[in-house]
Every structure is written in structure tokens, then in C-alpha cells.
Amino acid sequence: MRRIPRTALSPLLKRLKIYFDVLKRTTSGYLYVVDLQNKVAMTSPNIVRDFGIPAETMGFSAFRQAWQEIMHPTERESATKVFDDVLQGHTREGCVEFRARTRKGEYEWIECRCAAALDHEGERTLYAGIFRLMGQRIRADAVTGLLNKYRLEQRMKAALDEARETGRGGALMILGIDNFKIVNEAYNRAFGDQVLREVAKRIKKILSTDFRLYKLDGDEFGIVYPGADEADVETLYRSIQTALLKPQQINEHKYFCTVSGGTVFFPQFGKDYLVLHKYAEAALTLAKQGGKNKNCIFSKELYNRWLRSLTAREDIRRSVEDGCRGFSLCFQPQVGADSRRIIGAEALLRWQNSKGRMVAPMEFIPLLEESQLMIPVGKWIADTAVRICREWQKIVPDFCMSINLSYVQLRDPSFKEAVRECIERYGVDPASIVLELTEHTVISDWDFINRQFASLREYGLKIAMDDFGTGCSSLAMFKNLSCDIVKIDRVFVKQILWSDFDRRIVDYTVELCHSMGMKVCIEGVETQEEYDLLAKTCKVDSIQGYLFGRPETKEGFEEKFLMRQEAHGEEQLCHARAMR
């Protein structure tokens, strides 16, 4: 490309060229300066040498086109917007990171800072910039191509500096893929890498050019949101949820994933990046413990909960090592929809910590799953529940015991054998034991779970799908999985008396299940009106809810439900004999 003759330079640029020549010999950075009045650009020789820009002095249009050609397509739009904002007067200066193709044909991450100079009339006369190669610690993540955690740290430090100067804060959001460890275990690391790339691609697509997505350790991503309030963060998170709604097609597998979020606002909760990162991680942990697929906003109260969870983790470990000390089971009755008779119960795990406080299941069960302690505790649950089931079958011969099953247990090779040993030890019919797995766990790994279900059903156990309707792939469940019972979540019961939509959903679900040979249990029934509609109109098979009883201890369940039913049965028998 033809060089611009020296006579084409403006008087101002001629004077500045002297300083430019000195500066480019004394810095290792890459420099450029543009005379905006005459549309002429100068670059330092190392730009020509390392990136193949045609000449040190050239027309601005050619300079701009040359840069456009070597920018990575992924970052081209966002980087160009930053440059244009400076050129068009939207801002005095800008900073952007992007990948540029070197003369060797490789892409390198660079950081570019640019600014415009004004004359005495306020017109932009000069546009200049300096960029540098980003070191190993702040290069892109090898799997996703995103900038990594070191660059997030730098970005946050810059945002905190700005907050100190201007008072304008923002939010740090950390996202984590739910159940990602299961992905690597169920498939392999290469499959997990594909999931990471697809998640990164979908989230990046919905972010505006003002945002950058960062890849952190493991399955986590970071976003800095300057000037955000809670409403802004909630809108962003909902957009991310929507972007991930469609299942991923990876090889021959369809995989559905969700992400949880933890968000902290700065500078009100901290002026140091490491502190803010810790707070965001704490919020993310609690979002996952609270059911996943949600965003948790940091607060001091929330942080104290997180600290308690750390203490609880160790307390739980000691409890398990001490023979599951502090653990107990409560039982909620399940009744026949037509007869209103007790036909079974759901065994619900409870835990009393070393200080004597009853800890909420939503707090301790995620800790059991994350630490793999659910495996020994699950075996204790199975043994206890099967033993009690045998006792209660002496009163109600066809009594069935429902036991909640964690995905962690399902992946344990010894689980099936442990259940089989319990059943044989206590002489219980396998068909009277129902294993419940929640829908949101199932939809992430159809193939594996279907194989496990088939194996358990082959032994005679029954399988129930719990919390049906709360996941994002309920209809797909019918196609991909084979189970015996579907438990419809209370979310469809709460408004069923006045919501024609909810009633129709329940009607159609019951009809579909019955046509496929599955029974239906409705959870969360609390009023007589709800019962009448569900039993008589929707024709469900069984019902569970506060209308018939809250979870009770073994002794409480026997006294409130079994003894009463036994007495009622004896009354009926005496009445029948008297009528003969």
C-alpha cells in the first residue's frame, strides 16, 4: 500500500510526529495516532511488523479497514463500537479487549486504550491509542475462548476505581451451571467442554456490546454490570434463563441445562475485588442450595446463612461418621382418592444439628449431595424406611413407602444392592417400595436415568416422578422415561379452583398418564374443595397434603393415622358381623 507523503500531514501532526517518533522508540506498546481533520493515520513500526498493517502512515479509511480485517469476528462488533463512541464524541476515551490476527495467522488477545483530543472550539482533532498484548495470566480460556478470571479481576478493579471517582457502582454476577459435575460423570470431559462452549455462546449472544462474559474456574462465568440495580440484574438473569431454555444437541444426546446466579452490588458491599468475589460465590452457593435455576442477591443476612452452611457441612460429616446421629425420618400420609384410606406415606429426612437445632431440609440436603454424604445417609434412609414399612404393613397390608432418591445415590453402583438387601432382610414386597426422583434432576440425563429406572423396576420396585410440572421438559419426560407414578406438584393445585387452565393441565396430565399405565398422585392438597375437584372431576389416584396430615414422626404417624384406621376397620368388621 502506498505511503501517505509527508506533505499530506497537517502542521499539527507534523509537530506531533516528532514526539511520536521518540515515544515509539521508548515503549514496547503498540501506538497509533490519527489526524481527524486530514484523515491520516500513523502507527508504530511494531504494528506493521507483528500484525501486518500495510504501512506506518496511511489514510484513515484504509487504516480502519485494515484493523477490521484482522479483528476476530466474535469481538469485531463490540470493539468497533468502543472506537466509534470515541470518534463520534459519545465519550472522550475508551478501553476494549479483543483478539487480533498476527502476521503469523494466530489470534492474540490485546487490550486497547484510546482517546480523542479537542481543539479550542471543542472539535475532535486527534484520535490516538495504545494497545498491548495480554499476558498469559489474562489470556482467553482455552475451552470457551472467553477472557478468564484474571481479566475479570482487572475489570472489576477498574470498575471499583470508577466507583470511587464517580460514585457510580454496579453489580458483579457469577453464574454456575447446575449439576455440571453430573455431566462429566455421566458422559465425559469432552462432552462437558461442549456444554461449556454452548452455554458461553448463548449467553454472549444476548449480552449487549457494553458487557463482556468471563470464564472462571470449573463451570462458572462472570459478568460485570456497571450502574445496575436489582431490577436490571433480574432482567439480565431472566434473559439468560430464556437463552438456555432450548435443549442442546450434542452428538446424539439432547442435554438441557440451567444456570444459577449469585450477584453482589458494589461499592455498598465492598470495595475490594476479592471480598466481592467471595460474596458473589456465597450468593451462588445459596442459589444452588435453594433449588437451583435462580439468582440470589447478596445481603449480610444471606452471607450469615452461607457461613452457617459451612459450619453445617462439618457438623453433618460428624453426624454421618457417628452412625447418622441426629438424622430421623418423618412420614406424610398418602390416601386413596376414592376411599380416603391411608395407602402409604412419603418418608422425609430430618436433621437435628449438634446444638439441638432442627435444620431445614433445603439447607442440609444440598450439603449432603455436594459432599457425597447422601450415599451413606441414603442407605440409612432405605434401611429405616423399609423396616418401618414392614411394621406398618401388619396394620395396613397394602401399605406402600415412598423414599426420595437423589441423583447422587442413583449414580452409586452399590445403591441398588443396598436397597435389595434391605427388602430381603425385612421380607417386604419390592412393589410396596416407591423410589421418587424429582423431575428437574431427571431432565439433564435421560439415557442414564432410564437405564437405572429399568434396572430398579426389573427388581420389582416402583418409580415415581416427583414435582412433575416444575421442570422445563415435562412432556419430554413421558417420551423418554418409563415410571409407575407421576406426582403433580402443588403449583397446579394452588389455583385449581378458579383457574380453568390449571384444571385442564391436571385433567390432561391424568388422562395421559392413565393411557400409558401410570398412576397419578397430587401433592399439596390443603382444602376439602381442592380434594373434591381432584378426586371426583380430575380422577387422580392418590392424594398427599395437609388436608390429610402433615409430616409426623413414626410414633405420631402411628397414633394419628394407623391406629385410627385400624380402629375404623375393626368397627366396620363388627358392624358387618352384626348385620349377618
From TrEMBL:
SMART domains: EAL (SM00052), GGDEF (SM00267). Transmembrane segments: none annotated. GO terms for molecular function: cyclic-guanylate-specific phosphodiesterase activity. InterPro entries: Cyclic-di-GMP_PDE-like, EAL_dom, EAL_sf, GGDEF_dom, Nucleotide_cyclase, PAS, PAS-like_dom_sf, PAS_fold_3. Residues 15-90 form the PAS domain. Residues 309-565 form the EAL domain. Residues 168-300 form the GGDEF domain. This is Diguanylate cyclase (GGDEF) domain protein. It comes from Selenomonas sputigena (strain ATCC 35185 / DSM 20758 / CCUG 44933 / VPI D19B-28).
